[in-house]
Amino acid sequence: MKAAFTEIDTNYDISLRFCVENVRDFFERGDEQDSTRVVRATDTFGPGWHIKCKATNFDGENYLSCYLVAGSMGYPTPISFSFAGESSQGGIQYFKFSTTHTFTAFKGADWGWTKALSKLKGWDRYETLREENALYIRATIRAQVAAVYPDRCLDLSHDVITTERPTDVRFVVHASRDRAGELSKPRELFANKATIRRACPLLAKCRLTQGRNAHIFALIYLDPSDIDNLDAAAAIAQELFGEAKRGPHQSTSSAIGQHDDNTSQADSDWDFDDEEQVEKAPHPHPTAEETEGRRDVVSIAPTTIAITGAALPTWEAFLFYIYTGVVAFGPLKSRGEATRTEFIADYRVHNPHRPAPCSCKSMYRIACILDLPGLKELALKELSSQLSKENIVTEIFTGFTAKHEEVKDLELRILKEHWAELKGTEQVSEVLKNVVRGKLPHAAAVMAELL
């Protein structure tokens, strides 16, 4: 089911059409069949809404009910919505309803039509409905976008006003990396240990080893999508286990990307408590206001963590997600560099105080490494929404896809849908040649499933 979204100013204006298959189950049930088990629902759309159809019975008559579901907490502003049930070609309309409703937790999160379509006036009456055994529902949903305050933001706000907890973790992250592995364009990002511990326990277990002045923490991959040095693309999409090389602007605290096989099990369970104080790494371009503000708020030097395996946009977006539960993704580069650049520039204009959109592939990697299933699901859904016939060949024959089975399965399904059109193209022919030449060893498994 595909939903088409059009955002006008601060309003949701959503149109979608979906199919309810095996609609006979709603009307022709045996005496022993439990009607509550006959339920069909769309995927979520908008701010977590979905549409649900279920079987009901009143006075011995079977009905198909149709509801808009706005979630357990409801929605703070009125929602206007309409449902129209029709045949596959749209030539026959079985029902049409519209209403405006304010969803609240007190009133319940479902609202719609309990008797949307009856057996007598719908199923028995329309031969086309019985022959197709399917009901196509066209829905429109309009509502003002409400100010949303995620639970994490509310929790953090409470912490800020009830404690003197400062930002006590500093991440040194870089925006660029060249072919020689040298990092450049450093920037500091800040966070709070308790917040990290609560939102990402695995990251919180990265701890100082005795005698070192920086956390050992290097993500395994660095995605070209989030690096502004295009010449680095061939070198940065690989595993990073060695110590990172640093350019002239690198922070004085060490950037460690070394995998220590001798680290004990106890070390791996260390937390952030009782850290050694470390020398503060300088901000590349601190303003006077920033310097004064930090002097007032932070009385001790924060723990420094040098990130050598994630680019600046990725890590900034990741920390923002930890605090808010919100992440913005940019278009894949395979959809066109101009498209991606224009999207990010436009987002920055309208959201100057938020992280720039990041790569969903980069965020998927971080979510896998740090065991964050919610973030992983968000990134995978975003990746799925951006895959098409035009870019699937580019995406599936990559090292990223080869490393992630779930991604490979998703992209294989999409490639198979379009394989009849793509298999004779010059692009696929070139891939086959590179596989034979051994230039794409990770692509052989994909080709084996296709040929």
Automatic annotation (TrEMBL):
Family matches, as InterPro entries: MATH/TRAF_dom, SKP1/BTB/POZ_sf
Composition-biased stretches (Acidic residues): 268-277
Region of interest (Disordered), ranges: 245-294
Record's compositionally biased regions (Basic and acidic residues): 278-294
Protein name: MATH domain-containing protein
Provenance organism: Rhodofomes roseus
Higher taxonomy: Eukaryota, Fungi, Dikarya, Basidiomycota, Agaricomycotina
